[in-house]
């Protein structure tokens, strides 16, 4: 009976085997060996609209992002690179594993009956602690037809070397290609960005699945890298697409890495600089309007001073004058529901901010969520936390160190926005974070990608419902409905009532 109910909840009829070793997809219950009739569908076809629901209005994107990052399909991306250029990439990594060196490549993007070809695009490696060598070991050059391929993150920049409209894909010029590092469930970051969109958080980047091939010329066949996530790049183009929502697009976009507390008491000890293509990881890195770096830096420091030093009603009114508080708190409600501990409030990490004016005191400030692979039960001893499911959402981080969110929640009206948003997320009727809706959504995605997971790296060749092995709470599951282990149910139980 439980098995029957689970299948109903999941809205999925077939559990597909995806293991390189012919092991089954690890889901709750016993394997279903009953033969299913041929319904004429291709892998990835679905009978429901779980993959691509009615998101809140995104007319500002003119359908461009919705076409590229379509959760109903799995596009094919084929990259071709000369052996000389590929070896340049390997050598650049060996000199500096943080390299941002681009190599020349050709790229083909196939989706929904359209094929787009881009000659002389740019490809580089991406990632912080997750950056890897895409082939072999240090010092080795490409081994023709005998390569030891490795999963790694890439940036595909269609306009890196050719600055024309022909080098854009439906007005998209950069795509992050991200392997599912530490996520054998192949869904955590996809789920996270999808939930932001479902909840109307327009500042979140778009994301969806794809399949990736890399062909080094001279090899008989392209290397199939498997199912990847593709993510919209957060840059000046990202801001420009949302100009009507930001209010302006020519101003200060900052990437904020570990140590970015926004606390005035330590900001002068942080590294603050602009993106200089050096590969250096600055704590606060200006990604746009870099010609006006000095003024942007002053604005950032003045913002941190006001954020840290203003108190009581003075702070309450000031933050409302420079920020859409409701949008910020609803964004953070999603962040906390996802169990994102490697974030601003708990670990002073992984976010962007945008100021829609370069005036030191007259602007609107926007918080932009970023990097959601360590979520949904991948928990860690970090900051004030040791359990991402059960941690009190009102005490997610150290407000004395990272003041922005905790100071907002000191006020009844602001706290009410946040708590209301958390409860809206978990309400069954909203089909957002509620566990049954979430299980159904992930099952539908697994049905779409499962035939494509096995790959030539021989890494991550099966879908498993497990958090990262290095986490401190390995028992958490996404698809097992048991209230003792299901992350969605445990997280919902931690949320205070309205």
Features:
498 residues, alpha+beta, seven-stranded mixed β-barrel, 14 helices, 12 strands, 16% strand
Low-pLDDT segments, ≥5 res: 1-49
User: Average pLDDT, to the nearest integer?
Assistant: 90
For the CA atoms, what is the radius of gyration? 23 Å
Structural class: alpha+beta
Shape annotation: globular
Describe this structure in words.
The strands form 2 sheets. Strands 1-2-3-4-5-7-6 form a 7-stranded mixed β-barrel. It has 2 domains: 68-236, no CATH class; 239-426, no CATH class. It contains 14 helices and 12 strands. It has helices spanning 2-10, 64-68, 83-95, 188-198, 236-241, 243-246, 293-309, 312-322, 325-337, 344-347, 403-408, 412-426, 435-449, 487-493; strands at 76-81, 103-111, 114-126, 153-157, 174-178, 207-216, 223-232, 252-256, 272-274, 284-286, 351-355, 365-369. Mean pLDDT is 90; it is low at 1-49. By secondary structure, it is an alpha+beta fold.
What is the fold's blueprint, element by element?
Layout (H helix, E strand, L loop, with lengths): L1 H9 L53 H5 L7 E6 L1 H13 L7 E9 L2 E13 L26 E5 L16 E5 L9 H11 L8 E10 L6 E10 L3 H6 L1 H4 L5 E5 L15 E3 L9 E3 L6 H17 L2 H11 L2 H13 L6 H4 L3 E5 L9 E5 L33 H6 L3 H15 L8 H15 L37 H7 L5
Parallel strand pairs: 1-6, 9-10
Antiparallel strand pairs: 1-2, 2-3, 3-4, 4-5, 5-7, 6-7, 8-10, 8-11, 11-12
Helix pairs in contact: 9-12
């Amino acid at each position: 009976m439980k098995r029957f109910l689970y299948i109903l909840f999941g809205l999925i009829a077939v559990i597909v085997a995806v293991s390189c070793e012919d092991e089954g997809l690890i889901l709750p219950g016993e394997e279903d060996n009953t033969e299913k009739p041929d319904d004429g569908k291709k892998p990835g076809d679905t009978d429901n609209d779980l993959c691509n629901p009615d998101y809140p209005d995104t007319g500002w994107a003119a359908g461009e992002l919705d076409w590229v990052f379509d959760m109903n399909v799995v596009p094919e991306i084929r990259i071709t690179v000369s052996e000389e250029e590929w070896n340049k990439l390997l050598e650049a990594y060996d000199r500096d594993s943080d390299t941002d060196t681009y190599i020349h490549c050709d790229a083909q993007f196939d989706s929904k009956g359209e094929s787009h070809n881009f000659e002389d695009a740019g490809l580089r490696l991406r990632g912080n602690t997750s950056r890897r060598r895409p082939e072999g070991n240090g010092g080795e050059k490409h081994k023709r037809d005998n390569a030891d391929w490795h999963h790694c993150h890439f940036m595909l920049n269609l306009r890196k070397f050719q600055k024309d409209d022909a080098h854009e894909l439906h007005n998209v010029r950069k795509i992050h290609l991200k392997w599912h590092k530490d996520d054998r469930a192949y869904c955590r970051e996809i789920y996270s960005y999808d939930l932001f969109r479902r909840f109307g958080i327009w500042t979140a980047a778009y994301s969806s699945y794809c399949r990736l091939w890399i062909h080094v010329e001279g090899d008989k066949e392209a290397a199939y890298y498997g199912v990847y996530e593709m993510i919209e790049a957060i840059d000046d183009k990202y801001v420009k697409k949302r100009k009507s929502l930001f209010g302006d697009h020519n101003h200060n976009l900052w990437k904020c890495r570990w140590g970015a507390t926004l606390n005035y008491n330590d900001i002068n000890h942080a590294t603050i600089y602009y993106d200089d293509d050096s590969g250096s990881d600055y704590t606060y890195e200006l990604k746009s309007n870099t010609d006006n770096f000095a003024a942007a830096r002053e604005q950032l420091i003045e913002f941190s001073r006001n954020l840290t030093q203003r108190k009581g009603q003075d702070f309450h009114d000031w933050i409302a004058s420079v920020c859409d508080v409701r949008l910020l708190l609803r964004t953070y409600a999603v962040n906390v529901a996802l169990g994102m501990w490697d974030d601003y409030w708990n670990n002073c990490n992984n976010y962007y901010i945008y100021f829609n004016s370069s005036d030191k005191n007259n602007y609107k400030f926007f918080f932009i969520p970023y990097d959601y692979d360590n979520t949904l039960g991948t928990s860690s001893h970090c900051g004030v936390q040791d359990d991402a499911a059960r941690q009190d959402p009102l005490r997610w981080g150290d407000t004395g160190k990272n003041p922005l969110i905790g100071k907002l929640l000191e006020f009844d009206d602001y706290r009410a926005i946040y708590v209301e948003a958390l409860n809206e997320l978990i309400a069954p009727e909203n089909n957002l974070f509620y566990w049954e809706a979430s299980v159904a959504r992930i099952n539908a995605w697994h049905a779409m990608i499962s035939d494509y997971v096995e790959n030539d790296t021989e890494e991550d060749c099966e879908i498993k419902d497990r958090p990262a092995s290095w986490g401190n709470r390995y028992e958490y599951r996404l698809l097992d409905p048991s209230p003792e282990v299901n992350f969605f149910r445990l997280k919902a139980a931690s949320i205070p009532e309205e």
